[in-house]
Amino acid sequence: AVCSLSGRLSQQTFDSPSDKPQFPGASAEFVDQLEFIQPNVISGIPVYRVMDRKGQIINPSEDPKLSKETVLKFYQKMTLLNTMDRILYESQRQGRISFYMTNYGEEGTHVGSAAALEPSDLVFGQYREAGVLMYRGFPLDLFMAQCYANADDLGKGRQMPVHYGSKELNFVTISSPLATQIPQAAGAAYAMKTLNSNRAVICYFGEGAASEGDAHAGFNFSATLECPIIFFCRNNGYAISTPTNEQYRGDGIAARGPGYGMMSIRVDGNDVFAVYNATREARRRAVAENQPFLIEAMTYRIGHHSTSDDSSAYRSVDEVNYWDKQDHPISRLRHYMTARGWWAEDEERSWRKQSRQLVMEAFEKAERRLKPRPEWLFTDVYDENPTGLQKQQEALQRHLEQYKEHYPLDLYDK
Fold first, then answer.
1. Which residues are catalytic?
2. Are residues 97 and 118 in the same domain?
């Protein structure tokens, strides 16, 4: 009897089907049928928008009700960027600068997001965020100086064109390699959290950059460390010549957010108000709650990837024309302003003429300016130059003195 009693005591009860798993790795339910999750079972994440293609507000409660002055600033920055793009693109084709990247079609993502941030928020861009910097007040003279790599360039001529940066405007200098800014932005946001600074970080990247390993690291660090950061993906349809259907099989980039534990939204990137609303709310909550947000702005790159690209090799003229003529962020905002009597043909003609004049004046000034001093090659890394670098600088000086007739030193700042 004792043996049978001890036998009964040693037996353990089996889990009932209603018991939940206790695994620490994920929250889930048990099932007793074998079934793989199909990628197309879940319908696509919807695209949030505020106004339609004709600039009409769809749901009045979502209208940000921005002042006439603010909306005009949106429009003027977007069109000024467009004008600067056209002139600098042409200058590269004429051999005046070495390289350029236009922002055609993506102006709404720049201005809408930039307007929703605080000036103290830190921006990590990819290389197609000139409108963010322009909205923050970066002057045309400095845009031109950077592209011409002249003596006024804040980077002292060390970067290729369009790789802007401004410490004053909290805009981290652009670097070419894809996605390197994503983990850097996560680290900056973690630092802001530890300082309790009431600041946020915004990190821009394209959907192509989201295929890099650095994107995984940045997303995961931000979620697990609970950082006040906005990941802003400009999904413009192409990673240079690779269309999205060759880049990934999932539902875009916003669908990845839940997998990392991030709040996510997909917005119409050609609707400047939708971008503004989404970024403003993400910024507010990122700082208040110390958590990352992922915004996927659906848009279209109307121009070539860069001056090194010919997009006619991989997409049709009809496709580009549709986005240029039927669904452009600038024309959509103009429809909105015209309907309210805030803008008319006279203002349009006057502003187009004035904006071109502003860009041309900065352009001509930059072209006349001397190049940076050769000795700046050796500065700004070390507080006191090490011996090896001093020897290199002395060797360059001796070489230039000996063979000065072969170098156009009169083109360089003294």
1. 90, 176, 305-306
2. yes
**Is residue 46 assigned to a domain?**
no
- CA 305/CA 241 separation, integer angstroms: 8
Task: Give the model confidence (pLDDT) of 249-291 as tens digits.
Answer: 999 999 999 999 999 999 999 999 999 999 999 999 999 999 9
Same domain, 401 and 355: no
Contact indicator for 74, 115 with CB cutoff of 8 Å: yes
Tokens in use for 303?
């121009």
**Cβ–Cβ under 8 Å, residues 396 and 374:** yes
Per-residue exposure over 345-371, b if at least 16 CB sit within 10 Å of its own CB, e if not: eeeeeebeeebeeebeebbebbeebeb
Q: How many domains does the chain have?
A: 2
Would you call 254 helix, strand, or coil by DSSP?
Answer: helix
Report the alpha-carbon distance of residue 17 to residue 14 in Å, rounded: 9
Measure the CA angle with vertex 186, ends 185 and 191; round to 5°. Answer: 95
The per-residue pLDDT for range 91-134, each reduced to its tens digit, is: 999 999 999 999 999 999 999 999 999 999 999 999 999 999 99
Please, what is the Cα angle at 131 between 127 and 137, to 5 degrees? 120
* Cβ proximity of 299 and 269 under 8 Å: yes
pLDDT at 346: 97
Residue 70: how many CB atoms within 10 A of its CB?
A: 13
**Amino acid (one-letter) located at 271:** D
Give the residue numbers spanning the domain of 81.
60-368
Do residues 204 and 350 both lie within one domain?
A: yes
Residue 137 and residue 202 share a domain: yes
Q: What is the DSSP letter of 19?
A: P
DSSP characters for 348-391?
HHHHHHHHHHHHHHHHHHHHHSPBPPGGGGG-SS-SS--HHHHH
The length of the chain is: 414
3-state secondary structure of 315: coil
Query: Are residue 303 and residue 386 in the same domain, yes or no?
Result: no
**Is the domain of 128 the same as that of 221?**
yes
